[in-house]
Design goal:
By secondary structure, this protein is α/β, with parallel strands linked by helices. Helix content is 34%, strand content 22%.
Length: 162
C-alpha cells in the first residue's frame, strides 16, 4: 500500500500571536511586523501576524517544518524579560493566552501534527508582560525589549536556514 508523504511548504513559519487590544499581549504581532518589514526572507520563510486567530492558520502550520511563535508569556521574570522555549514539555506548561477559539497553541500544533506530521520543530519566544489590561499601548519595559527580541528572532531564523 502506498503511503502519502507531506512535504513542507515552508521551512519556517513565524507567527506573531496575542491580542493587540490587551496592551503587552500585542508584542507578538508587533515583533512579527518588524521582523517581516526589516528583512528580506526567502520564500521558504513566512512571517504572519496571527493575533488571536492561530487556529485559522492550521493549514499553514501543518505545512511548515519549523514554527516559531512570538507571544506574551508569564515566566516569572521582570517585565520585558525574553524567554526562548523549545522543549515540548516546557511548551505544554507555558502560561500563554488561548486563541479566539479557546485553544492553546500546543493544541493547534498537535492537530497539525496529526494531519501531516509537521511541524517537527517548535520554538516559542515569549516576553514577560507588565500589563495585560485593555488598551493598545505596550508598556515601556516591554517596548524596550523589542529590539533584542527582533534580533534574537533574526538569529534563530538564520540558524535554522543554515
Amino acid at each position: 500500500m502506498d503511503t502519502l508523504e507531506f512535504f513542507p511548504k515552508y521551512k519556517i513559519m513565524v507567527m506573531g500571536a496575542g491580542n493587540v487590544l490587551r496592551s503587552d499581549d500585542g508584542i507578538g504581532s508587533l515583533a512579527a511586523r518588524l521582523l517581516r518589514d526589516q528583512n528580506k526572507w526567502p520564500d521558504t520563510v513566512a512571517v504572519l501576524e496571527v493575533g488571536t486567530a492561530m487556529f485559522n492558520y492550521l493549514q499553514e502550520i501543518s505545512g511548515s517544518r519549523c514554527v516559531i511563535i512570538i507571544d506574551a508569556v508569564r515566566g516569572g521574570g521582570k517585565p520585558g524579560s525574553i524567554y526562548r522555549y523549545e522543549k515540548w514539555e516546557s511548551l505544554s506548561s507555558l502560561q500563554v493566552c488561548k486563541d479566539s477559539h479557546g485553544l492553546l497553541p500546543t493544541d493547534i500544533i498537535e492537530w497539525a501534527r496529526a494531519l501531516t506530521g509537521l511541524p517537527t520543530e517548535i520554538v516559542i519566544f515569549g516576553v514577560e508582560p507588565a500589563n495585560l489590561d485593555f488598551g493598545s499601548q505596550i508598556s515601556p519595559s516591554v517596548m524596550a525589549a523589542l529590539p533584542a527580541l527582533v534580533s534574537g528572532l533574526t538569529l534563530e531564523i538564520n540558524r535554522i536556514l543554515g
